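Here is one chain, start to finish.
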Amino acid sequence: MLAALLAAVALQQIDSVPPHRAPRTLVVDERLAADAGLEIGDPLIVSRTPGGVGDTVIVSAFMRRRADPSEVARAEYRVRMHLDELQSLIDYGDRVDRFALLSHPEPPGHPEPYVADAPQGRLRGGSALPAVTDSAIRRINAAAFGFQAHRSRDIAVETSQTFLVVSRFHRAIGVITIVASAIFLLCIMLLKVDERRRDVAALRLMGISAGSITRSVMVEASVVAVVGSVLGLVLGWISTAIINWHYRGVYRTPLAFALVTPQIALLAMMLSLILGLAAGFVAARRLVSMPPLELLTGRRDDRPPVSAAATR
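Its structure:
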């Protein structure tokens, strides 16, 4: 028995080296990676204070900035860490400011929708199933203390009020531009038609009806309007490409700062055609309503008509 114990002690190996823990991973903002020259696999030290003692992490991936208008003017960098490591780094305890839960159908055997308990913070309900989400929000707000549940859609609407004001301002500018362009188009058509006074007078004296002259002027005005709208769309598309290229490089974001959608192009074409036809009709009717001789001479005969009396 004693010999067996001595053999076991002799064969036992004592490992005095502490177990090795692989470094944790970290996801870095691609803007930070470009500015700092980081590559995948580079080691970093994260600490509470610059130059302080911290933990070594490995860059595992780069994340691209979302196309979110609310984040365009923000210049700070973002990183994604493991939750336990972030909690240890910021020393925030069990508290949270905001987190999201995704609502889902009730699992088998559960009569009520399942909602994960949360500590302190602001809870955002998902929008997968409206009935389940509404039920979860009511239960959380009725039983919870220290945080409040909201739909993610409601939070997005609340934080987008500034962009709604900007959108209405842009719409007002668009309406003013359309009215000004309509007036400009009408003036151009009046001038172009007025230059053809003699031609219109000759057609009238040849027996061409006023309706035929009006229709020909309207066709010409519609062609001018359509060609102008096509050129405007091409110019707008080129301007949009230049604007997006410039500001995406300045803010380093995939956000589209200007758009020319098919709906916008169709609306522009329809408005241009309608305004062109209206301007051509007004200009043509103004011209054909004048007597042909007045169009030829350019003089207006204001003398009253003389009635001749028959005498014997």
